[in-house]
Amino acid sequence: MESSSIIRKTAVDLRVAPNLIDYEGERASFSWPVVGRELAGLPGGGINIAWEAVGRHARGALRDKVAYRFLARGTPAYSVTYERLAELAGRFCSVLRQLHVGKGERVFILAGRIPELYVAVLGSLQHGAVVSPLFSAFGPEPIATRVNLGEGSVLVTTDALYERKVAKWRDRMPTLKHVLLVADDGGTTAVPGTLDLATLMAQTPSACEVAPTSAEDMALLHFTSGTTGTPKGAVHVHGAVATHWATGRYALDLHTDDIYWCTADPGWVTGTSYGIVAPLLHGVTSVVDREEFDAERWYGILQDEKVSVWYTAPTAVRMLMKAGSDIVKKYTLSGLRFVASVGEPLNPEAVWWGKEVLGLPIHDNWWQTETGGIMIANTPAFDIKPGSMGRPLPGIEAAIVQRQEDGSIKVVKTPGKEGELALKRGWPSMFRGYLNNEERYRKSFAGEWYLTGDLAQRDADGYYWFVGRADDVIKSAGHLIGPFEVESALMEHPAVAEAGVIGKPDPVVGEVVKAFVSLKMGFEESEALRMELLGHARKRLGAAVAPKEIAFLPSLPRTRSGKIMRRLLKARELGLPEGDTSTLEGGA
Ligand code: AMP
């Protein structure tokens, strides 16, 4: 568990005074109600994320400050000030009011990292609607599943994505009342059954009274994957904003003059909590790049935009490592002062690579869709043990626990002992439910502890070390993928009798999705059929979720109760011991 070496921080590592200096002291004196006082609150009472993030700044000292610099290949950067962002969000809010979208109704957004996405998120929150950004690399099936689970009333998307992924599936999303289209070429759209967003925005006023939401009103819906069944809609509330403020301060060390770049897509929770809410709360300037990963481009952005705080992901770091250290030498990254990463295990070599090549170690931190914000982190002032996720932030109580047969849990006190990572209830951004799945929500708690589903260890110094997932979900390039969703799509192909899906370790993206299928009578395995199945899955699920590899098996191992034993498929794939196979159908 312990890495042999520790990265000791010195004054040279700290170009500005960190927000968190006295770890124990701050933890001891911390209180969420005190953090709440850092927020403005609505003038008439209540709390609304959009008001905290932009509304109040647009009327204050930060009015003319750039909130976002939107970058895209082939066009000049588009800068939006806090005042302009508030105006655009207000117009979007007015559009929803004119369309008679009610408070609490669900607005889904399917778009790449375009300005309209950010405006629609903020405008929906201002209106009091619940917003759910979807990853634009999803295929039609994951999109329809989520819109239906969330009973989406409004979908905001682009004309190209609509045509490719929504139009043919529209009648399978019966709750959708309005589809608002953004023209990919920047003009207007005229697609039957849809409305043109630019036209609507031009015709509506920017003044739109902020909905008087309370801390417990639902604000965001983020879908996450489990081992079985459909994706789970994690419900987040407006009061979560207190966690975004505190973690932006402690874990990302945001100072008002920072230029900040969160590379995550808002289709995943990091891109919303830390690509939208936290940086705006702290009044910093954020960079948003529309393009996909490209090592030269990324170093160019860090240099040209003078990024000072960079929040990225282990897969991206490993891709930069793969691109070689020579490229970096062409760029001046002197503005960069803090680098953090999240979403999957960050290997010690990546932390060291940062130190050697960027001149700054990478600070791993941990959280998940359900927690709504960063819970465990390495922060600027403290030594890093490469390979560790860091320590719980002020306001967060973590523990390693073991589940007992009677459903209770035992807190493991001994350092270095493995168990499930648990968090004590009570932080503001904790999810408030899985949409329409009260039982699954209840099962995530044991008394006052939320059980994360991750296995971890805690060392004698209070640092946490990730061990693995307790379930079968797959983490590929930082994205959580439910094997069941992939298996279901494969099963829809006429040749497939059964499908089992696993995460196969990969040195760059962490895990790749690998499927095992057995065929129905009358179908023969062949390379052509394998390619056809890969294509079928990609078309339905999209590139982000579809398997990269498919292997044929005569039959799949199942438990006596009929469940596919993914664990066994994985052990066999990796040549590992098969473990307990006593429940295997036909087994001992
Ligand atoms: P998501 O809900 O999609 O954000 O995924 C959350 C899951 O990603 C966690 O439960 C972990 O399994 C994994 N994860 C997040 N951060 C880390 C990290 N720093 N190290 C290891 N795994 C992580």
Descriptive notes:
The chain is of the alpha/beta class and 588 residues long. It has a domain at 472-574: GMP Synthetase, Chain A, domain 3 (2-Layer Sandwich). The strands form 6 sheets. Strands 2-1-11-10-12-13-14-15-16 form a 9-stranded mixed sheet. Strands 17, 18, 19, 20, 21 and 22 form a 6-stranded antiparallel sheet that branches. A hairpin with a 5-residue loop joins strand 21 and strand 22. The radius of gyration is 24 Å and the shape is globular. The two termini are 35 Å apart. Adenosine monophosphate (AMP) binds next to strand 14, strand 21 and strand 22. Adenosine monophosphate binds next to strand 14, strand 21 and strand 22.
Q: How are the SSEs ordered, and which strands pair?
A:
Blueprint: H1 23-29, H2 32-36, H3 49-58, E1 66-72, E2 75-81, H4 82-98, E3 106-110, H5 115-127, E4 130-134, H6 140-149, E5 152-158, H7 159-166, E6 178-182, E7 195-196, H8 197-203, E8 218-224, E9 232-237, H9 241-250, E10 259-262, H10 269-281, E11 285-289, H11 295-304, E12 309-312, H12 314-323, E13 338-342, H13 348-358, E14 362-366, E15 376-377, E16 391-392, E17 398-403, E18 409-412, E19 419-424, H14 438-443, E20 445-446, E21 449-458, E22 464-469, E23 474-476, E24 479-481, H15 483-491, E25 496-506, E26 510-519, H16 527-541, E27 549-552, H17 566-574
Parallel strand pairs: 1-11, 3-4, 3-5, 5-6, 6-7, 10-11, 10-12, 12-13, 13-14, 26-27
Antiparallel strand pairs: 1-2, 8-9, 14-15, 15-16, 17-18, 17-19, 19-21, 20-21, 21-22, 23-24, 25-26
Helix pairs in contact: 3-4, 3-5, 3-10, 4-5, 9-10
The structure holds adenosine monophosphate.
